[in-house]
Amino acid sequence: MAPEQLSPEVLRLDAKEETARITATIRTLLRNELKRRGIVVALSGGIDSSVTAALAVRAVGKERVFGLEMPELHSAKETTELSGAVISHLGIESRRLDIAPILEAEGFYREYDSAVRSVIPEYGAGWKSKIVISSSFENEGFSLHTLVAQAPDGTMQRVRLPLKPYLEIVAATNLKQRTRKMLEYYHADRLNYAVAGTPNRLEYDQGFFVKLGDGAADLKPIAHLYKSQVYQLAEHLGIPEEIRRRPPTTDTYSMPQGQDEFYFSLPYRQMDLCLYAKNHGIEPEELAPAIGLSAEQAQKVLEDIDTKRATTRYLHLRPLLIEKVPEIAY
Hints:
Structural class: alpha/beta
Number of helices: 14
Distance between the termini: 38 Å
CATH superfamily of the largest domain: HUPs
CATH architecture of the largest domain: 3-Layer(aba) Sandwich
CATH topology of the largest domain: Rossmann fold
Strand content: 5-15%
Number of domains: 2
Number of strands: 7
Order of helices and strands: HEHEHEHHEEEHEHHHHHHHH
CATH class of the largest domain: Alpha Beta
């Protein structure tokens, strides 16, 4: 492939045809494999959950899709505004559950704040924070994590995170995802529905999900689609424009946080092309002009893809058995 051939156009798809293929497969999986009568989707106000819900409606009808909104104290204000917009747009039954009291009872806020105070002792009421990751172009390929905190008066602090508080903060935030998934499965059991996961290909491939949290699902309708392709489906499906304009966000920390500053090396448009290049054996020299980087930088991103695949393989594994049980094999 010549350099000029690699462009976002390689990710162009026939949205109408792809929608028909996905929705037909959803119906088949529900009927033949899962034996469930409908679908539960957790809605975050983001593009992936909105598209997943819209595909579910196309597949089984709005009467058999149940949307869950699960905000908490750290959620962005626009999260419920946008999730409410897609619920209204699709006309599905839904429920909004404030999970802050559950997280409070589980000790999430206490444990999170305690971990942050171990590196910023004055952290307390009125403060906000997030974790950011160093670029894959720095530190000889090693990722370093920094805690960013904002005081009530607006002043900012940035502190390099040692391993112990980093793990404690991530463990606490993972608890959010597992709490939400518990509620999704409660409603799925109540309705005899299946739970739909919402990762796109970039997230699924690179392990950007929580095991038994947002990584748990009965089916994942868009896990084969690059993020750019999810946006194409969103336009075809008529997802409200304000959702399509929203930058990808983790909506996990109390400060606004983009996915590229927390996990990925680059914004999704470039990362999609990098992942495509990796999957199709395209060399760094061919990739570099398409993403506006040097060949050396492109090589580092491709190496980071391999690193994330290796280090997050655990997230994809089924429970490991000491000995196979031949009667239960899938």
